Amino acid sequence: MKHDPFQCVEAAPIFHNLSKKAITELTKISVHQQLYPKGTMLYEPEVPLDRMLIVDQGRVKVFQLSQTGQEKIIYFIDQGSMDSEAALFTQQSHFNYAEAMEDTLVCSIGRSDFQALLKEEPSIAIAMLNVLGDRLTRLEALNSYTSTLTSKQRLQNYLMDIGNKRHEQSFELPMKKKDLANWLGITPETLSRQFKQLQKDQLIKLERNQVTIL
């Protein structure tokens, strides 16, 4: 399928309510479909935060590493999602690692070009505030997964969220089980037990990585 720069920019949540004129101007200053092969780092800590990213195709894992090298997944960037929105407003460096989980095509908008355009289209700033609010809400939801809920509840809520977003009762897990366990803040062994418990309770069916919500 041929890439459409206008549709790529327009699909980003931060730009949903902008005029076609504004989208056209954003398209002019954006870089499209930069390829990151599977396993490639999009950024690492201390790398300058100077551009907003839009995943056009593929999937990206954002994580931190402890002093002992243990990985902690923070969130995932799926197709059509954005990352590093703060780059458009501030001069800082990245705090996390971002790795392509599969061959990934990324579009981006640089800070200097964006700020020049912002003077002509201030409505973009309002849209940005709404998106940042949504990001905070998602991070709060993640905190509930890893703190107040039991391991069974975390897994069940996650599966329900995936099904609701895809409008499907049956779907393939979008990540490896070890990554899912990491993201939910539980061990792979605990994840395996909770999958079995959800099946025993007749809440799901699981065949390899294919989940069906009953």
Topology:
Blueprint: H1 5-11, H2 20-28, E1 30-36, E2 41-43, E3 48-49, E4 51-57, E5 60-65, E6 71-77, E7 82-83, E8 92-93, E9 97-100, E10 104-110, H3 111-118, H4 123-146, H5 151-166, E11 170-172, H6 177-184, H7 188-200, E12 204-207, E13 210-213
Antiparallel strand pairs: 1-10, 2-9, 3-8, 4-7, 4-10, 5-6, 5-9, 11-13, 12-13
Helix pairs in contact: 1-2, 5-7
Keywords: DNA-binding, Transcription, Transcription regulation
Organism: Pediococcus argentinicus
GO cellular component, one term: cytosol
Characteristic terms for this protein:
214 residues, alpha+beta, 4-stranded antiparallel beta sheet, 7 helices, WH_DNA-bd_sf, FNR-like transcriptional regulator, Env_Response_Regulators
Please describe what this structure looks like.
- By secondary structure, this protein is of the alpha+beta class.
- It folds into two domains: 5-131, Jelly Rolls, CATH 2.60.120; 149-213, Winged helix-like DNA-binding domain superfamily/Winged helix DNA-binding domain (Arc Repressor Mutant, subunit A, Orthogonal Bundle), CATH 1.10.10.
- The chain is built from seven helices and 13 strands.
- It has helices at 5-11, 20-28, 111-118, 123-146, 151-166, 177-184, 188-200; strands at residues 30-36, 41-43, 48-49, 51-57, 60-65, 71-77, 82-83, 92-93, 97-100, 104-110, 170-172, 204-207, 210-213.
- The strands form four sheets. A four-stranded antiparallel β-sheet has the order 1-10-4-7.
- Keywords: DNA-binding, Transcription, Transcription regulation.
- One of its GO terms (cellular component) is cytosol.
- Residues 14-118 form the Cyclic nucleotide-binding domain.
- Pfam families: cNMP_binding, HTH_Crp_2.
